[in-house]
Structures are given as C-alpha cells and as structure tokens.
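Ticket reopened. Same input as before:
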Amino acid sequence: MTELLQLLISGLTIGSVYGLVAVGFCMVYNTTGVINFAQGEFVMLGGMMAATASSGFGWPLPVALVFGVFSVTLIGLIAEKLTFGLSRKPEVLNLIIVTIGLAIVIQGGVMMIWGTFPKELPAFSGEASLKVLGARVTPQAIWVIGVSVLIMAAVGFFMKKSVTGTAMRAASSDRGTASLMGIPVGRLSTLSFAVAAGIGALAGVIITPLTMTSYDHGTLIGLKGFCAAIIGGMGNVYGAFLGGLILGAAEAFAAGSGGSGYEDAVAFLLLIVLLLVRPSGLLGGTGGERVVKV
Amino acid sequence: MSKYRYSQATAPRWFSLSVFLAFVAVFPAVSPNAYFLNILGFAGIYVLLCTGLNILMGYAGQVSLGHAAFWGLGAYISGVLTAKFGWPPVVALAASVVGTCVVALAVGIPTLRLKGHYLAMATLGVGMIFHTFFVQFADLTGGPSGLVDVPSFSVGSIAIGTTLGNYYFIWAWVAIGLMGALNLSQSRMGRALNAIKGSEIAAECMGVDTYRYKVIIFVLSAAYAAIAGSLYVHSINFVAPATFGFMSSVLLLTMVVVGGIGAFWGPVIGACILSLLPEYLRAYEGLEVLLYGLILVGVMMFMPNGLAPLFSNLRLRFRSVNRAEGGG
Amino acid sequence: MRGEAILSIEGVSKSYGGLTAVSNLSFQVAAGAIKAVIGPNGAGKSTLFNLITGIEAPVSGGIVFDGCHMNGLKPNRRAALGLARTFQTPQIFENMTVLDNVLVGRHLHGKAGLFAALFFTGASRREDLAMRSRGFEVLEKVGLADKAHEEAGDLACGQLKLLEMARALALDPKIVLLDEFAAGLTRQETEHMMTIVRGIRDEGVTVLLVEHDMHLVMNLSDEIVVLNFGEKIGEGTPEEIQKDERVIEVYLGTEV
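Engineering reply: fixed in the latest deploy. New output:
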C-alpha cells in the first residue's frame, strides 16, 4: 500500500510538470491554433538559466529562480515576434514547423553555450523528506505539485474570466473575425507565447532540483506534455493539467510494475488510445469530426 | 491533338529526370573516392525517404511527424529476418514492405477519419512507440547497441556488397521511386490528391473519396520508407535505434520542406543538400544542430515553398532566353 | 422523365445547439426544371445545400434523389449518383491548372487506381485522353477553353465562377446545385451565366439554385421556394411568388 502511494506521489510530481507543459501547449493552441513544439525547450531553458544564475553567477536561489523564469519569458516573446511575426505565410502548418525549427535552434544554442553536461539546482527547502501516510515525500515534490496547481488555477481563471483570456479564445476560434472585431490578434499571439514560455520555464525551475537538466531534456518532456494535453483535452486548461497528472501516474505505475524502459512509451500509447477513442480529450468537447464551413 | 497535351510541366520533367539519372549513373567514373560514393549512396536513401514523405505531405497535404519509424520498421524487419532467420535479403525486402504497410494501414485507417492534424499527432506517437520497441525488444533487435551481422544484398549468388554495388542498387530503387512519383503526379489519382490538398470539401463533392485516398497515400509513403530502410540496413550491415528517433523524423521533414513541399524535385534537392551538409560541419557539435534549426525556421518563414520553385524559375528563364535568341 | 420529382426534401430539420437552421422543410424539384431557393440571409439556404450534398446530416427527415434515399451517404457517393454543386465562395483548386480543375470533376468517369497511377499503363493513358477531351468540351461550353493551361489561382472572380460551373458540369450530373453563382458578377457576366444555365436545362439537367438577385431569379426559374428562418413560407411559379402576400411582407418589398 505504501508502495502504491509512493508511486502515486512520484507520478503526480512528474505529472504536475507534464501538466504545466500541457497548459503551455493549451495557451498557444487556444490563441493561435498552433502546436508549439518548442514548449519542452522552454522547460529545459528555464532550468538552465536558473542553474547558471545560481551556480555560475552565484546569485541567491530565489533570485536565480526568478531570473530563470523571466529570462525565458523574454526569450519566448522575442522568438514569437521574430518568427510568427515575420513569416510570409503564417498558416498553421507552416508555423508548427517553425516551432519545430525553433526547438532545434534552442537545443543547438544550448549545446554550443553550455555543452552537454547536465546542470543542477539545489532543492528549495532542503532535502529532508517528510512522511505522509507512510510514504516519503521530498519537500521539492511538494513545491512542484503546489506551484503547478496554483499556476493551473491562475491560468484557468485568466482564460475564462478575464477580457484578455476571452479574447485569446476568440482569436483561436476565428482569427479573421476576431481581428475584425478589433481584437489585436498579433499581440495576443505574442502574449500567449510569452506566457507559455514563462509557464514552461517555471516548470523547468521547479523540477530541475529533482531531475537535473541538460540540453536534450526538453524534447521528451515537451512531447510528453503534448500527449498530456491531448489526453486531457487541448481546448481546456484544467483538462490539460489533469492529463499531465494522469500521464505521470500511469508512467510511475508502469515503471513500478517492472517494465522499466517502457515507461517512455506510455505517454504515446495513451496518446494513440485517446486519438482513437476520444480525440477531443477527456475533458474536451464532443467528438472529433469538425464541420468544415463552406 | 496538341490541345489535349498534358500540363506543360510533364515532358520537361521526364527530360530533366532522365538527365539527372544519367548523371547519377555516370558519376562513379568521376567520383574522387569511394568515401564520397558512399555518402552519395546514403543521399539516395534519403531521397527515397523524402520522395515518399513528399507524396504524403505535398500531394495529399497530410503531415507525418514519425516517418522515421516506418524507415526503422523496414530496416529492422529486413535486418532481423536476414540476420536472425537467414532469409534471403531480397525476400526480406519484400517482407519489410508488406509488414510496414500493414502497420501504416493500422495507423492510418482510424486516424485519417478525423479532420485536422490528428494524423500528425498519431504518427508522432507511433514514431516514439516504435523507437521504444526497437530499444526494448533486445532479443530480437539487439537493443540499444543495435543489430549486427546483417548480410548485404545478393541477387542469386552475386553479392552487391561493395560501395559501387550498393550505390547502383540504391539509386536503381530511387529511380523507380522517382518515376513512380512523377507518374502519380500526372495521373487521375494525382489530380485527386492535389484536389484534396487544394480544397478537401470541393474534392469530396466532386466524387473523390478523400478518406480512402488519404489512407492509400499514407501506406504508399510508408512503403517508400520501408524500401529505404531495407536498403539502409543491407548496405551498412548494421542498424541501431538511435537512427530512428523523433529528431530523425524532423530531419526528414526538414529535407522535404527545404526542397519544397509538393514540388517534384523538392525531395531530391532537400535530401541531397541536407545529407551532404553534415560532412562540412563535422567539427562543430552544437553548430550542426543549430544550423538545421535555423534552416528549417528560415525556409518556412521566408521561402515557404522551398528551393524547388527557384530552380524551376531559373529553368523557365533559361528557356525563354533560349527561345528569344534562337528564334521560335 | 421530365416533370417528375428528381429531388425530394422530406421533413428535413437541422439545428446547431440552440439555433434552428432548417425546420421541417419539405419540397420537391421536378426533373429538368430550374428551381430557385430564396429568402433573407440566415433563412437556412446554405445549410440546405450542405444537407443535400451530404456535408452535414439532418437532425430529422430525409432527402431522396433519383429514387435513392441519401441519408448517411458521404458527399462523394452523392456525387456518384449525379449530384454536382458549386460553392458560394469558389472552392477552386488554386494549385492546379484550369483544365486539371475540370478534370477533377471528371474523376468519377475514370477508374485508374494506384497501380495505374504509378506505372502509367496503356489503359489509363487512353482513359486520361478521353477525360481530357471531354474536359475541353466543357471548358468550351463555358468559354474558358483558352485558359485551359493557366493556373486556376490566376483567374478573375467571374472566371472562377465559370470554372466552378465547368467543374460541376464535367461530372455529367443529373442535377446541379448552384450556390449564389451571381454574387460578385457584373451584369454582363450574370447574363452569360444565365445563358449557360438555360443551356444546361435544355440538355435535360435539373438546376437548383440559391440566389439573391431577384431579376435573375424571376427570369430564370421555373419554380421558386421561399424560406424564412428555416421554414418554407411560399412555393410556386415566379408570378405566383410575386403576388404571395406573405413572401412580399417578409422578403420582397412592394416592387420587383
């Protein structure tokens, strides 16, 4: 029983990170219709920047963390303006490929600047693990889950209730009409990208003390976060986060039941199953077939 | 009867293709060394892969983010059947095509029913799953360190294992693949595919069974990849999972995009340029990756139709200059 | 046979969430006639076309074409039965030539499959030539034959409409659904289209059209059905409709 709980906790910990990544995907998708394949790289970059600030520059941890998040948010903003903003043919498919290229650029850049050795961050409030219902929980895990849930709630609230959030949802639903209604589609696109980068960086910053970070950590986290978003439902921030938790738990149980090495496939198996059974995701709307307007 | 002639691109394309293939056939005589020939052999494998992917993306407007998986599947099926079960390589090639096509059918049939980018997502998932299987089914596949002792191709008792033999064998298949693609683009089916890409709703209303065609073309692109996989494994006599990950699928995508999605010469241009590029970038680890990324972003942003249109514009200009000087 | 109903809309309803687009609609189209569907914007005309062609499915009711119950049939199967359409916003294949666009309309008259496509067999060659010559005939009928090898994306608006017409005709259909074909056309272009439509009807093809141009509707159609808020509020010959009080009140105004 404690073993199960242990697995669940470790699953929920990594699942929260997947959830945050999924929320990032959701944001950009809901505003621009684009699947941002650079999302995972923002996670990695956040950890990298914070780790450099902390051990490289010697800054105090809280400052380094904030630096990590803000620097990557800025990078995301600039990246969007330089790519989406300047594209000659900003169709969704092209932009998706642009984000794939962006991801590779970030990876390559990190390889050149930092090399291939992993970097680490100290845990936020020490290493001493607590006992919860018989299972050991590190304080960092609590940080991860706590911060993630908070961010998810904040983003969800923002998207649903605020004017900007509603505008974002309108922009993704019909860009042309939204633009005609006076909605600054271009600026919303930049905003969503920057916020997604920030959320990703935050995810990176809170998980790095547990997993370390290196140039290629972003890819798999990004892909799995994407699966989580599909599993939970791309149109829905809460669904995306839930998808992340479910994925994390499923992975933990898969690894725990002996199939180590296979847990990486869990995310993609779930993705395929969801696509076949309920493409709009667990919390998404009805059915997969969208009516094409003529 | 001249009114009924095919679209203006056809005859010139056959001509260019013949010239190109003649050049390929003659090249070994002028090649500086065997190493270069080896690289060009590999370029051929990438051309084949990209031609298949281009048919899917360019002619039918679908995206595959896991195409390397079909390449890997073809390679592993062919490799395992020959190395572990002693099958003749040519039979193994056929088996790898059949096996890969079956998998493609299983993936395509449910996902292509849905509108939107669901095929992209499904192929992403399939790609990652297969990569995991290549690593995990170690008894069969040799695990992360790969499968060794894969025999070379042989027709009857004549082995084709030399650099030159591999070169010609690979490019022979590339020639078949390119000719098939050219025929396809001029055919009734090719028109239907183009129509699906232009306006799926109109194509459907004109009687095109869009779903069926998308599935067919997805399976065809997988077949191209499977052949490329078999050629690959039998020419280097080895195969490892690392070759077929997400980054590989992205590489193939990049080649198609850079060459020009949907353009006939796109895959050739993109594959040749991007498979020869690493040879000049060996020294810098991160730089190679960075450069790939920049190329992908840059082309998609500023030349979304790829490099092929530039070439065809040049050719048109050349021809009109010729006509002006030579007179009618 | 002329006079009998070739298309029968039977109690068809369609709603999106809370919005009712079409409500218990029933009418028939006689074979060989030109029938117009008119009504204010939002009356359900485009939805009706989408329902007939199979792009959308009705919530209740059925559509019978040439004796065949079409519920559940995908659009491409309905095209195989002889049902062609044009679109309000031209859905041209801009990446193809004009002739190739028309040849897509001819798609169902060929059989060449994947094998023939890849290896270009003799049979598919012959089939292709036959399709091309018929494609040219159709282009000549609408007056676009001289543009056959141009990129469809380069055509002007009026020519796009002609191309859509040609593509639909290439099907050799039994009925053509024209969705606001006169929208955006000059007076001259409209007259040209009307001549083509009459020509189609004279060859025995039925025409069902949606239009706002009253001059066109009254001069071209044999019969008119009037919709408002998804319901039928009038049906009859142009003379009858012009005198129908309810129609006048809702849509026509006093002078036509």
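The two ends of chain A are 57 Å apart (CA to CA). The mean pLDDT of chain A is 84. Please confirm and we'll close it.
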